[in-house]
Design goal:
Layout: E1 2-10, E2 13-22, E3 25-31, H1 35-44, E4 50-52, E5 57-60, E6 62-67, H2 80-88, E7 92-97, H3 108-118, E8 125-131, H4 138-146, E9 151-154, H5 168-181, E10 184-187, H6 195-208, H7 212-219, H8 222-242, E11 252-255, H9 261-273, E12 278-283, H10 285-289, H11 311-322, E13 328-329, H12 338-341, H13 358-367, H14 373-387, E14 404-414, E15 433-443, E16 446-447, E17 459-460
Parallel strand pairs: 1-4, 1-5, 6-7, 7-8, 8-9, 8-17, 9-10, 10-11, 11-12, 12-13
Antiparallel strand pairs: 1-2, 2-3, 5-14, 14-15, 15-16
Length: about 475
């Protein structure tokens, strides 16, 4: 395949060029090409397929390290097919799947079932993250690691098992697992909230009729996120010192969906103090673009964990993105049915779909000159590829997989959840405008944003 008349993203810039893709790999890129360059690539093009990009932009495929693909016992919400098709039509070519499934993916038997269900049903590449097995069983951990999971996930406020992650001994054992096996621990940073405090806030709402999204923020406040981040960082440093570890043996921890200025600043301060620390984090698009001042006809659609915060947090985090300081973005795609979101706010589940809005809205910020393309590509593709050691992904380079999206500007249109490929036809972004058209999406050189294409995604593992 040849892609001609394209603007190819190269080291922070868009350069006119042509590209030869052969056997799933980018074989040759010619920048500012002459007629002779095109003729030479044409001779090497075995399938005779030539696509005229008509001055559209080629970007590396997006890598999303935080999604909930559901399926198994939750296929009314989403399936591997519907979720990965949603990603395929959005320019997202690789995702990591979280383990709070039904049944929970915290033992080797369930993870095998999970992976087997995904085989031949994924349109993009998928890595799997495991829950921690009961009693942090070391034999079971080894079995899970042999399956090639990308890491282990903990939910301190609502553990998958009965393990209490606020108990130092449990957290230290998990850090030891990470150190020995050099496997990443994904953390939902939220300290459990005192029930009495929660009850008082709820009663205050009942009598004062305050904004539900703002109340949700008070029920799960920034201080609980910051408290667990502080606790995890303190334990991390103590573990390294007490075990006299060399940097190669440091544990790996990753903070999911950081939503507050204070917790973000804590992480950045620790990383600035010691660049050898294997600490990473992600921020979601909704914690960059939305706040709890959002007005929705059904507030439950904007209910998410962590909650939408006060505007000062989203504005701060978006500025950090614009300044090139963020590490990676994770959509936290969390689909639910319209029926589930139509019940009482306090009964409705948290989360909403994010795969089909994330690229459109942030690329639109670039089109409006509010964000640089270079900073977007870093957090969406390059940094995740480097952080998670995804070989031949994240860059438009010779020898790399032909995972890419081709985009163009279009006339402005409104986001309409009814057009989503995900089963979850809801969005707090309904009615938001964008002028971005995702024209083609390629996975290893195969066009995947087509309705009748067969699934060609692979399960990616730590073994690869």
């Amino acid at each position: 395949m040849i892609l001609k008349n394209a603007k190819i993203y190269q080291k922070g810039e868009l350069v006119k060029g042509i590209m030869l893709i052969k056997q799933s790999i980018i074989k040759n890129i010619r920048l500012n090409p002459l007629n002779q360059d095109y003729k030479e690539l044409l001779d090497l093009n075995e399938d005779n397929n030539v696509i005229d990009c008509k001055n559209k932009i080629i970007l590396p495929g997006i890598i999303d390290c935080h999604t909930h693909l559901r399926d198994m016992g939750q296929n009314q919400k989403e399936t591997f097919r519907t979720a990965t098709k949603a990603a395929a039509f959005s320019g997202i070519t690789t995702v990591f799947n979280m383990p709070n499934t039904i049944p929970p993916a915290n033992n080797s038997t369930n993870i095998k079932k999970w992976m087997n269900k995904a085989k031949e049903n994924i349109f993009i590449d998928v890595g799997f993250i495991s829950g921690v097995p009961e009693q942090i069983n070391q034999d079971e951990i080894k079995k899970i690691l042999d399956l090639g999971v990308m890491g282990f996930k903990i939910y301190p406020h609502s553990p998958i098992t009965n393990l209490d992650w606020t108990q130092k001994i449990n957290f230290q054992i998990l850090l030891n697992v990470s150190s020995i096996h050099q496997i990443r621990i994904f953390i939902h940073p939220q300290w459990p909230i005192d029930e009495k405090e929660t009850r008082n806030l709820f009663e205050d709402y009942v009598f004062r009729h305050s904004n539900l999204l703002k109340l949700h923020n008070k029920l799960y406040p920034c201080k609980s996120e910051t408290q667990f981040v502080k606790y995890a960082l303190k334990n991390y440093k103590e573990f390294i010192i007490s075990n006299k570890l060399a940097p190669k043996d440091y544990p790996l921890i990753h903070f999911c969906h950081i939503s507050c200025k204070e917790s973000y600043s804590l992480i950045k301060k620790v990383l600035a103090a010691n660049s050898n620390y294997k600490i990473s984090y992600e921020v979601t698009p909704h914690h960059l673009l939305l706040s709890n001042e959002l007005i929705l006809s059904n507030p439950s659609i904007g209910k998410v964990m962590p909650p939408l915060r006060n505007k000062k947090h989203s504005q701060f985090l978006f500025k950090e993105l614009c300044d090139g300081n963020l590490l990676v973005i994770g959509s936290d795609h969390a689909p639910h049915t319209i029926q589930e979101k139509s019940v009482d706010f306090f009964e409705a589940p948290s989360g909403f779909p994010g795969l089909e809005t994330y690229p459109l809205l942030l690329l639109n910020k670039i089109a409006k000159y509010e964000l640089s393309l270079a900073n977007f590509v870093k957090v969406a593709s390059e940094n995740p590829a480097k952080l998670f050691k995804l070989e031949k992904k994240g860059f438009i380079k010779e020898g790399y997989y032909a995972d890419m999206l081709i985009v163009d500007k279009s006339s402005e249109y409104k986001i309409n959840p009814e057009t989503f490929h995900t089963k979850s036809k809801i969005s707090p972004y309904e009615g938001f405008k964008t002028n971005i058209q995702i024209w083609k999406v390629l996975l290893r050189g195969i066009e995947i944003n087509l309705e009748n294409v067969n699934p060609t995604g692979r399960i990616i593992t730590q073994h690869l």
